[in-house]
Design a protein that fits this description.
383 residues; mainly alpha; Growth Hormone, Chain: A; two-stranded antiparallel ribbon; 17 helices; globular; disordered C terminus
């Protein structure tokens, strides 16, 4: 549901701007406010979920996020839209780190990459549905209906999660202050967080602009949304492939393969922004997400076991903070329709990210204490 809400706005940017009689750059910045709040709230929710429980945190924040998303549906100005969407993003931000930490608490390290790849299936479904439906609904009816739907869905899901058990962890959790100090002293952890920030700008930031670029290339909002929905299909296919490859491939090879797909996607989108190219680029970005992102995400759950909850939350925060910075920084270029410049720059950034991430991961080895961790050796349980 969090993914569904997060990706629903991108195909509707043009429709929202037209309905509110606002510049496209202002609406893109409002979307950036969502991603910024979504990203900055992640470490907070990591600490909260550590204190009050993963499931309890997810349930409360989904309820509040749903109500705020429905409030955004009746916004009469970009300012009100930015505030309500920003607050909704802040509460929806709890879902991602809580789910990742839940997997980290309950799935052994040896099978965690496969579990995270399967989690990507849910991401794929949310992304595909949001991309295909949001653009069509905005084109044929009103963008406001989409936010009403995601808000209502979040409220319902908050009740459904009542049956999900809280994880019971074998080792005591560290205090937030101690965890922050551990992160600050851990060079590999800081590297992972820095890579996540750049990845957010490249993968999430570029995907957000694909439907707008396709519309500028002549596609209707519905067609632009459908082209972007191919991303979801790619994540479904890529998740199955990555789950198998992770059994035999070192993570740096998955990072290199995913990064190469991202570089190719950005380079192709710089050539033309027609709908068929947008579909091809969305497919490549989906493959990049399953290989590159899932590998970095798995690394985040392993790099500092004693502060896993906060590391994972900071990882997610860095990812979406990067996407928010990209959205705000590129708003004027988007308004001017300079998509060739945008995607060419993204290709250069993706190349740097791929090289840095692959080299860093190839040189890192799992700490000995992690190998002995009850959670990662399969003795973690839920109760």
């Amino acid at each position: 549901m969090s993914t569904l809400d997060r990706f629903a706005m991108a195909p509707m940017l043009v429709a929202i701007a037209a309905d509110l009689r606002a510049p496209l750059a202002a609406v893109v910045s409002a979307a950036g406010a969502y991603f910024l709040a979504y990203g900055l709230s992640q470490p907070v929710w990591g600490v909260v979920s550590d204190r009050f429980g993963r499931v309890r945190t997810m349930r409360l924040t989904l309820l509040l996020a749903g109500l705020l998303s429905m409030a955004a549906a009746v916004a009469g100005s970009v300012a009100v839209l930015a505030v309500t969407r920003g607050l909704a993003g802040g509460f929806f931000g709890a879902a991602y780190p809580s789910a990742l930490i839940y997997l980290g608490d309950t799935v052994p390290a040896g099978t965690r990459q496969r579990a995270l790849a399967r989690l990507m299936v849910g991401v794929a479904l949310g992304t595909a549905l949001a991309s295909a439906a949001a653009g069509s609904v905005a084109d044929l009816s009103s963008w406001r209906l989409v936010f009403l739907a995601t808000g209502a869905g979040a409220v319902v899901l908050s009740g459904v999660l009542r049956s999900l058990p809280e994880p019971v962890v074998g080792r005591p959790r560290t205090s937030p202050a101690a965890a922050l100090r551990a992160i600050a002293r851990s060079g590999p952890t800081l590297v992972v967080l820095g890579l996540a920030f750049v990845e957010g700008a490249v993968l999430v930031g570029v995907l957000t602009l694909v439907p707008t670029a396709a519309h500028a290339g002549g596609a209707s909002l519905s067609l632009a949304g459908l082209a972007t929905a191919v991303y979801g299909l790619a994540v479904l296919v890529g998740s199955a492939v990555v789950a198998r490859l992770s059994l035999t491939w070192h993570p740096w090879r998955l990072i290199a393969a995913g990064g190469a797909a991202a570089v190719l996607a950005c380079s192709l989108m710089a050539v033309t922004q027609e709908a068929w190219m947008a579909a091809a680029v969305a497919f490549l970005l989906g493959l990049a997400w399953t290989a590159l992102h899932s590998s970095l995400q798995t690394w985040a759950t392993e790099v500092l076991p004693g502060a896993r909850a906060l590391v994972v939350a900071c990882f997610a925060g860095s990812l979406f903070a990067g996407s928010s910075v990209a959205a705000v920084s590129l708003a004027d270029l988007v308004d001017a329709g300079r998509f060739t410049v945008i995607f060419a720059g993204a290709a250069v950034l993706a190349t740097s990210l791929t090289v840095a991430a692959a080299v860093a991961r190839s040189r890192w080895t799992r700490p000995a204490c992690h190998r002995a961790d009850p959670e990662t050796s399969g003795r973690g349980r839920t109760g």
